[in-house]
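User: Hi! I'm working on a homework problem where we have to compare a predicted structure to a textbook description. Could you give me the structure for the chain below?
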Amino acid sequence: MGKASIGLDERIYEYLLSVSLREAEVLTKLRQETDRHPARIMQISPEQGQFMALLIKLIGAKKTLDIGVFTGYSSLVVALALPEDGQVIACDRDPQATKIARRYWQEAGVEHKIDFRLAPALDTLDELIAQEQTGSFDFAFIDADKRNYPNYYERALTLLRPGGIVAIDNVLWFGSVADPEDTDKRTAAIREFNQKLHQDNRVEISMLPLADGLTLALKR
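Assistant: Happy to help. Predicted structure tokens:
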């Protein structure tokens, strides 16, 4: 969620993009179309996508999870970074937004890398665990309903191999997590989740002020 990295003024943000962003044309087209979507605020920022693609290459990922697809930018940017035999298992239950995603996956020539599951993500994750795919994934991205973050995280951690990374979006929630007067249920859920991760000795963590806040957790 959020188009620009939190805390950066427009001048600095535009400079950052001008000297850093290398966005494929198909990704730019997808962002531009998503800008016209009523829920466009759910789109990840391009610099976040590029950072995730770099992580994929750094860890040599081949098998990944995308929990929360929306119009498909995160799945697409990861699929483009994966080797030809790589795979993204993409989880979402919105048939309309994901129609856009599937169109761009096809246009980019990466549809064969993306195994899309139109179902509640927890059902898909539980199915993967039941199929004994635990410890077989290299990377997971969580960007779905906030009150289920602990459930998504636990299942993603189970599915990740040691040395795999789970990336969690929106952990700063527009800065609301630092406002003690904000008692919104989603804000409270993210605060609680952030505290949980801070105490989780199963992982190494780093919270980055990238986009709307991105936490990386490396499974020990």
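For your comparison, note the following. The chain has a mean pLDDT of 96. Helices lie at 10-20, 25-34, 46-58, 73-81, 97-108, 121-130, 149-159, 185-198. Good luck with the assignment!
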